[in-house]
Design a protein that fits this description.
Helix content: 25-40%
Structural class: alpha/beta
Shape: globular
Strand content: 5-15%
Amino acid sequence: MSPQIADPPPSSGAQGTLFCSDLFTHQGEVEPQTSSAVVGLFKQGLIGYQDGPFAHAYPYTSNTDETLKRLAALAPKTLAIMHGSTFNGNGGKALEDLALAMREVLGSSQ
């Protein structure tokens, strides 16, 4: 499943939520919700995956950065993460940081 954004009616006062699927996956005992850095947790797990059966589980292509930039431009306030804490905050910045983390870890390996 690809990431999806849900925007409530403007009159509701609520902010958009990006349903992230496996983007930002992180492991371990984590809080249900957080407003702190989820990218660091994702990057730690991604680095760990590279030495095991999940190496190359995340595709990284010439389209990855641009795709994540388009998602960041949606400026979600909530990132609903399938495997990890839901993030509340600047989702656009988190997606930009995710692109950097993926480039650093996967950019030269695929």
